[in-house]
Each structure stands twice: as C-alpha cells, then as structure tokens.
Amino acid sequence: MRLRNTETNAVQPLEPQSDPVRLYVCGITPYDTTHLGHAFTYVVFDVLVRVLRAAGQPVRYVQNVTDVDDDIIRRARELGTTWDHLADKETTLYADDMAALNVLAPDVFPRASQTIPKIIALIVKLEAQGHAYQRDGNVYFRVGSVADYGRLSRLSRTEMITLSAQRGADPDDPRKQDPLDFVLWQVSALGEPRWESPWGVGRPGWHIECSAMALEHLGPQVDVHGGGSDLIYPHHESEIAQSESATGMRPFARIWVHVGMLRYQGEKMSKSLRNLVLVRDLLPRYDADSIRVLLLRHHYREPWEYTPDQLDDAAAWTARLRAAASRTRNGMGDSALAVRAALEDDLDTSGALHVLEEAIDSGDRDWRAAAELLGLELSDPRLDHEEMKKALGWRAPFHNGGGS
Ligand SMILES: [Zn+2]
After folding, report:
1. Chain-wide mean pLDDT for the chain?
2. Cβ(31)–Cβ(48) under 8 Å?
3. Ligand 1 centroid to residue 211 C-alpha, Å
4. What's the structural domain count of the chain?
C-alpha cells in the first residue's frame, strides 16, 4: 500500500508488518450526521481497511466520537435537549447509516466523554513539561514551546491566526500568551458538560480529546491518521503538537491521509450552510452499492461538487454491472488482484471500479472478491438491517458515560 502523506506531500509506502497497522480516523461530531461528506470520508477509510486486511495485514482501527464539543452544546440548546441525549441519538443514527452503506465498524469507537480521566492526565503532563499554562480555570497549549507548529498545514502564522478564528478559536482571548495558543481545558458555562479537574470544574478542548484517545488506544505513534481535509488546521496540527510534546515520539503519525471536501450548491456541505444531503434521505431511493459507487468514482484527495444526476448515473452503472455479474460464468479469476493493485496505489478507487467493470464484462468469476474490496455487494442484500449492523460490528446502543 502506498499513500500520499499530507505532512511530506510525498507518496509513501505503508510496508507490511506483523503488528496491526495502527489507524486513527477522526470521527463524527454527533449533531448533523450523516451527510454525504461524512459518508465520503468513512467509505474511503473502509476501503483502506478492506484492502489491507485482504492482503493479510492486520489493522487496529480506532475512530472516535467527538461528543464533547461547542457545536453539540449549541445544537442541543436549540433543540431543547441535553448534549448527551443528542450525542447518543446522533451516534446511533450514524452507526445505522454506516451499516446501511456496508461500512465495517472500527475496532474501537471511543467517545470523548468517556475518556475524561485520560484527557486530564495528559493535560497535567503537558503543564508539568512547560507546554501548557493555566489562566482563570482555563488551560492553554503554549504553541511557542514547540519548534515546528504549522509543519503539517504549511500555513504562515498570519494564515493560522485567521483560520483559527474562522474555526471556533478566539485569537484575541487576553488570557493567551500567544494568539495561536489553543484551549486544552476550559471552564464550563451553565448547562454545559462538566467534570472535576485540577483547574476546577470544566470540560476539555477539542484537539486534546483526539490526542488522548489515540494515545490510549494506539500508543505514542500511529501508522495512518486520517480525517477530512478541513481538520488539517488547527485540529491535526494541534494534535501533533500535543502528542509529540507529551511522548517525545516523532512523528506522531507516520502518514497523514486527508479526504477532500464535498461541495453542494456551490458551498462546502455543512449544517451551518443548510445544504446537507443526508444518507438516510437517499437510502429509500438508492441502494448502498450505488451510493458507494458515486463516492468511489472520486479520488479521495480531490474536493468535488455533488449534483443529484451523478447519483442517478452511478445507480444506472451499478444496475448494469449487477445484471452483468449475475450472468458471469467463466474467466481467468484474477480481477481481485488487479483491483487490489489499483487500490494499493494511493487508493485509486475510480481505477479499481474500471478494472471491476472490465472483469465482470469479460465474465471473470472472481468479481465477487474484487467487489468486496470496494465494499460492493452487486447482488441482492443478503441480510436485513439489524443483522447487517451486527455482521459489520456496529454494536448499539452507544451508551454515554456522562459527567454531568
Ligand atoms: Zn480528531
């Protein structure tokens, strides 16, 4: 497997190893799931996991749930519900949607709210090392204490300050020693999630949650760290600073893989812009194969704009392929290898779809193993939804540890 590493901008081999590949993917913030942009990200990593496992490479896949977050708190307030109730509900919906799309569950599906003691311990360590400081019950990461903050995003200091403000931070917070310093722990306002800590009652910042969950479940270094490209700065940049400072292990992630943003109606698909296409609204009309084909026709790194006719086109292509697959009888039986070769080349999913199409059209009986790598069934669904969820490893309900 070769993957383009955002940090070096080079295609880098992920050599076979006897230990499981340590894969960490930043998961959902459970309040606006599951839109097609989310589906693109998690289907891409699903294909990565399928290809590695098919090649005999064990994988330990951790995908977190960011259930302590400003957006959830705000959304719960709007809906007149509590943050943990909203997070539970949306996390279950997400698992339902993923199972419906034939996405394998991660091996570990940790929630920030259930990781609080580890998060606090990590902040205590960073403070003792001089990487963090406290002001009025808030704790900040001291960006000046690391030599190369900004090495992942390659943004200038001015660009980082502008972008951090757009993405929820407050560079003008007078308690900060530097506008780029970011929150590790903050005082909880009324009605917000809250936990006891050495700095008083509060809640963690976003970035430290992922460092703590990655360190807890995968150790001081991960092989592949993934997420949407909108997480490069400040989230992943800050994860690097926190994790490497705490452990002394460099690099925190051997390969950073970022999935391009999906646009719709001229804008990034997002709740705040009210231009969401939800998977659950598509599923009554389109099967999982068609939705996966729509997504996998795009290279994961490329941003693209969704239009509904693309989905109709993907559905027509999928229907034709399914009909052809039902007639295949003979053939060489090596299409799975060819599909795998395409996917091992920085996840060339559209190339892999072409190989699969040619194999089926030429009557290759090996098509089922090839389709499996892309997570396509190309036959009538064999299981009902609850059986499918179980088979894919999505175990509901996802209980919340709570803290309030
Ligand atoms: Zn994260």
Report:
1. 93
2. no
3. 8
4. 2
Is 398 a domain residue? Answer: no
Among the three residues 255, 277, 299, which one is the final residue of a domain in this structure? 277
H or E element that contains 27:
none
Segment 124-158, tens digit of pLDDT: 999 999 999 999 999 999 999 999 999 999 999 99
CA distance 385 to 100: 7
Q: How far is the CA of 26 from the centre of ligand 1 (A)?
A: 4
Q: What tokens appear for 243 in the block?
A: 């994790």
Q: What range defines the domain where residue 343 resides?
A: 286-390
Output the CA 128–ligand 1 centroid distance in Å. 24
The rounded Å distance from CA 369 to ligand 1 centre is: 32
For residue 396, being part of any structural domain is answered with no
Do 252 and 291 lie in one domain? The reply is no
| Tokens read off for 321 | 């392929």
Report yes or no: 39 and 101 within 8 Å, Cβ to Cβ.
Answer: yes
Same domain, 93 and 126: yes
Taking the C-alpha atoms of residue 348 and residue 335, their distance in angstroms, rounded to an integer, is 15
Helix (H, G, I), strand (E, B) or coil at 292: helix
In this structure, the answer to whether residues 158 and 93 fall within a common structural domain is yes
Distance in Å, CA 71 to ligand 1 centroid: 14
Q: Do 263 and 358 belong to one domain?
A: no
Of the three residues 245, 277, 309, the one that is the final residue of a domain is: 277
Q: Residue 334: what pLDDT?
A: 82
| Whether residue 309 sits in one domain with residue 234 | no
Q: CA–CA separation, 143 vs 131, rounded Å? A: 8
Determine the distance separating the centroid of ligand 1 and the alpha carbon of 236, expressed in angstroms: 7
User: In the sheet where 182-187 sits, what is the strand order?
Assistant: 132-135, 138-141, 182-187, 202-204
Secondary structure (DSSP) of 38-62? HHHHHHHHHHHHHHHHHTT--EEEE
Q: Ligand 1 centre and the CA of 210: distance in Å?
A: 5
Residue 9 lies in a domain: no
Whole-model pTM?
A: 0.95
Q: How do residues 340-383 score in pLDDT, each as one tens digit?
A: 999 999 999 999 999 999 999 988 888 889 999 999 999 876 67
Q: Which of 97-101, 228-232, 301-305, 358-362 has the lowest mean pLDDT?
A: 358-362
Q: How far is the CA of 315 from the centre of ligand 1 (A)?
A: 33
CATH number at residue 47: 3.40.50.620
